[in-house]
Amino acid sequence: MPLLAAEGLTRRFGALVANDSVDLTVMPGEIHALLGENGAGKSTLVKMLYGLLQPDAGIIRWKGDAVTLPTPKAARGLGIGMVFQHFSLFDALTVAENVALALDDARPLRAVSDELADISRAYGLPLEPRREVWRLSVGARQRIEIVRCLMQNPDLLILDEPTSVLTPQESEGLFATLRTLRAEGRAVLYISHKLEEVRGLCEAATILRQGRVVDRCDPRQQTAGSLARMMVGAHIAEVRRARAEARIGPVRLRVDHLSVPSEDPQGTALKDVTLEVGTGEILGIAGVAGNGQDELFAALSGEVRAPEAGNIVLEGTPIGWNGINARRRAAAAFVPEERLGHAAAPRLPLSENALMAGHAKGGFTRRGLIDRGRMLGWVDAVTHAFDVRKGPRDPEARALSGGNLQKFVVGREILGKPRLLVVAQPTWGVDAGAASLIRQALIDLAARGASVLVISQDLDELFEIADRMAVIFHGRLSPAYPAEDLTREAVGLLMGGEGFGPGREAA
Amino acid sequence: MRLTLDRRDGAGMAGLFLSPLLAVALTLASSIVVFWLLGQDPWRALNVYFLMPVSDFWGVQEVAVKATPLVLIAVGLALCFRSNNWNIGAEGQFLIGAICGGGIAVWTQGWGGPWVLPLMLVAGMAGGALYALIPAVLKTRLRVNEILVSLMLVYVAELLLDWLVRGPWRDPFGFNMPQTITFAPEATLPLLFDGGRMNLGTVITLVVVVVATVVMARTLKGFEIKLVGEAPRAARFAGFDDKKLTLTVFAVSGALAGLAGVMEAAGTVRQLLPGFSPGYGFTAIIVAFLGRLNPVGCLIAGVFIAITFIGGENAQIILRLPRDMTLVFQGMLLFYILACDTLILYRPRLVPRRAPA
Amino acid sequence: MTLAEAIFLTVITASTPLLLAAIGELVVERSGVLNLGVEGMMIMGAASGVAVAIVTGSSVLGVVAAIGAGMAMAALFALLTLGLATNQVAAGLSLTIFGLGLSGVVGAPFVGMQRAGIAKIEVPFLSELPLIGPILFRQDPFVYGSVALVAGVAWFLWRTKAGLVLRACGENPVSAHALGYPVLRIRFAAVLFGGACAGLAGAYLSLVLTPFWTAGMTAGRGWIALAIVVFASWLPWRAMLGAYLFGGLIILQLHAQTAGVRVPSQLLAALPYLLTIVALTVIMALRRGGGQVAPQALGRPFVPDR
After folding, report:
1. Please, what are the domains in chain A?
2. Which of B6, B220, B231 has its CB closest to that of A345?
3. What fold is seen in the domain C3-112+144-287?
4. A91 at the C interface (CB within 8 A)?
5. Given an 8 Å threshold on Cβ–Cβ distance, is B327 in contact with C101?
6. Helical axes C38-56 vs C59-78, angle rounded to 10°
7. What is the ipTM of this complex?
8. Nearest CA to CA, how far is A432 from chain B (Å)?
9. What is the Cα A33 distance to its own chain's centre?
10. What is the pTM of this model?
11. CA of C139 to nearest chain B CA: how many angstroms apart?
């Protein structure tokens, strides 16, 4: 008998049908993959299974009986636990308090701490109960999430893209834990779009596209390519690039022994970062989230100034003390990681979002007054060049889908013909079509002679587009190696801090 | 049943105008109920509050006299609130403006010339701006809460004024009344019409509204204010310095409140005395919100609130209603405007309570 | 009674309304809501307390009415900020304006009507002790109540699961919601508690401290209570310390005035406000670089995604 069976689950948000009559069957002792692109409806489905959303139609059966799950508490009561993609942790509270919050009984905190210690030993998930969460690494935070699910002794554990924030080695540790759980007869519902991972770990898969189940398979019998086709439903253009030797010229951007404290008291300071990017080159910076990527971006963009002007040199000119607009006037451009709120103001129209990044170089004002016509013209140009799909001519930024907004944000910068582009997480959370278009645009930009620096947590992406790669760990940067000389394992070890020498902090 | 809020996709332009109108309508409806509860004839009361003040030219001038400081302060506050800077102490900046300008009038009594009035206006603006910079500097340097600091400074300004008019600046021939001398003609704003109190201050205010409208709608500075308020991180990405902007908007709003204060002293009251302001600085907060933090909106809202101000005074005499009634209506209006704003952003929906497990 | 005893006694009575209002607001802010309407709730408590006490002749009913009025005002605020997710700063300000106006209307018929204060509780024997006797064991019930309230709140926030959940809502409402906690309902309860405390503080002003009604009699005490919460880094016992410091200041200033210190009385009267600014500045300067102290989600509206 299936452990969990969803039959005909449907959920609408206004006009959008997020889940359209979805069927899903999970057997006991099975690691079941739920595959799909961003926006395919995976999150909506698991939120219904965890009692966070109510289905508009359909039945959920648990061990054969139809159940309603009005709250997560009800789901936990049955034996369903969930680890969220964006952790539902409380930074200012301790590990034990975080775990206690997820328990439905009112055990005293000391008892919680004891049991927590037991479980973390049994499953190889080391944790310190009295530590405050903000002091912990991403991997440790995920361990808290898993431990607090396991304290409920669940029959089914739902994991939402658990490895997107982990190093390959940390991921292996997680897989070992999951296999232990399977051996105990528990089931795991594993949401991912990393196909190799799914092929190695799962014995069943359900594939969602646009809110519908489009296929079911045994991923072990599939290739990554065939899984991708099921997910996307179409052939995605392969990214093409020319050989590196033909393109790469002299150094354009040089970062020289740059150390910057973090503005965020919980952030990571940059320590002695040195790098070079040549003309026509794409340099990739890999690393687990929270290792100084935000600080590196802020320092490169000029949102935070460097201690010495000579720490950052662009085309021979020291620019470390220049602000972001002075750097833009020196033909640099920037795409931050956070689309809504950083790269774009959610409630302002696209034209004003174009003005935001473009006003420094002039052209949008006439006699001190803003020229709305030119702003709209720029929006049209970006829309055309980057295939930005939108309803009205000038909608608010938040009205665009993630992929289309990202195309707009990247296009806005590339159309300004920068000689240096610094971009963080260029395709984070966008659909495969947009991701492929954006990566091609970055490669084409480099082919035209620009220098591109890509900060990304997505190793697949970096291996696809980068000429050389470095790894950032605890605010330090490794030397950059040619991408073809690197393996995923080697990069993974660097991401975990191997080879960074002394001065490592405990995770 | 429980209330849920669904985010609307594009906020309709209609909502922008609908919301304040709806808020006014709801306030009127509520006030009818309140009047009825107090045993008043609601129609007569509404007539006293809203129609009598504008029934003749003298009344219209009085409305302009009251609206002038409200609009001027509210335009400044709108810049602050737009950029997420919560200057709640406009009342204090208003008083300091009056003190700085009025001080010059007292000091130059008997030997002044035509230069006195411009000097007073400049001193009032400078005083208000500097006073507003206290919370702004503390906020940008040490992240001290600007709401509490600017508010505390209101009490300090009130006490300073009280001390001045009872002590050093008291009119020696004023029968020991706590007030300054009546200002000399060269220290007063010229009247626009004979037989009324409307003065040059109203014209200055209208000019400020026009300038502020252009700045907000068409200049990079206006865009900066909007962007800092909407998305502070995006504003930094645009190369705007939010700390510098905080100082700027506080200084500008303080200067406008100070200007309102000195114009009230030099134009309307023509001397300084305790209780010199009927709380213009606080009422202007309501005006700013009712006017959608938009300069022209503030102008319309300021006129409306000024009418209720005078209506309240009339009601006190004619209907024997307590003067605080006006505050009740103003608070109510602000509640409604906030609630109506939510209706623009979200679509409220009553849904049945979820079935028990 | 010696002068020292008298001064200590008055300090405690001057501090108690600050403490009551501050401890209520502390719980509200711990749940992630910033209610700037303390002044408005407090003065409504003062006005309704007096009105009901005079009409019914019962101080107890007056106190109950004051608490009820504070809660009603708080419920109004909660409806706006929690039900309709409006800007908390603006809603708090309108609550204060509304409260100042409405209290004037409610209190108008009772202006100048004095009634006897509430009797003090004398602990046998202990109250006979020199100095500490009258200070610690001959106080009105509110003083004892306020200290018990601080102890209760401290215990609740750090020793109970419910307190942990409340703090969690103030740190990260999205996560608390994801774990299945009814964030808005918890915040609603916290706001109501804050309203009850502010109402009680108001009753203390108009029934014990003064004891009669004058318009605007809170004179910024609600705002000082808000400052005390910041000053106390959102910790209950430290709020008590802060309240007594500010209360002491107010009394010191009054005594200096009667003692004929050669400074303008207005300057002395301005001292509590000026020192509030100084205290806030000093505490922020000390805290610089010390990480986050305020509840992380303080003042940010939360709308659950159904």
Report:
1. 4-232 (3.40.50.300), 240-326+420-425+451-502 (3.40.50.300), 332-417 (no CATH)
2. B231
3. ABC transporter involved in vitamin B12 uptake, BtuC (1.10.3470)
4. yes
5. yes
6. 150
7. 0.88
8. 25
9. 19
10. 0.88
11. 31
